[in-house]
Amino acid sequence: ALHVLVPMDITLEQATSHINRVIARNTDFDKFITYFHCIYTKSNQGLQYVNAGHNPPYVVHSDARVDELEEGGLLLGVMSGVEYALGTTTLAPGDVVAMFTDGVTEAMSPEEEEYGEERLIKVLQEHRTGSAQQILDAVHQEIIDFTGSETMLSDDLTMIVMKVT
After folding, report:
1. Is 39 exposed, middle or buried (0-12, 13-18, 19+ CB in 10 A)?
2. Which of 58, 74, 92 marks a domain boundary?
3. Which of 21, 23, 43, 95 has the fewest Cβ atoms nearer than 10 Å?
């Protein structure tokens, strides 16, 4: 749907502003969308992104350092005319980018404790040497173990893991 809404010859931050205008004009004032969009350029290992109120994705470096991809602006649809900032970072072989919905960090244990960001970061660091699929599987299993079962999940559970090779 994005390619229908946005001309192809504009920057990522301009595209985000355009999408925001369309959403703000066509939805009720109490409706909004969190949004994260990134473009990875393999030739220079550069990652450009815009984060519009979404959980900041994590970059877990090969040495286990963690950065958050926060640059951007407000949630989409809050108000028209919002300008968005472009974030950039350079990735290196072995780095992992983990993008996720709040259902991951807000998964609840039987004792009504949230899984949380610290647990997620820990499992990403512990499994950072695996493939993207192995990291994703490890996070999924950790959440199932934490919640007691997959049926205990009350929110969406969506995650994308990218591993730089």
Report:
1. exposed
2. 92
3. 43
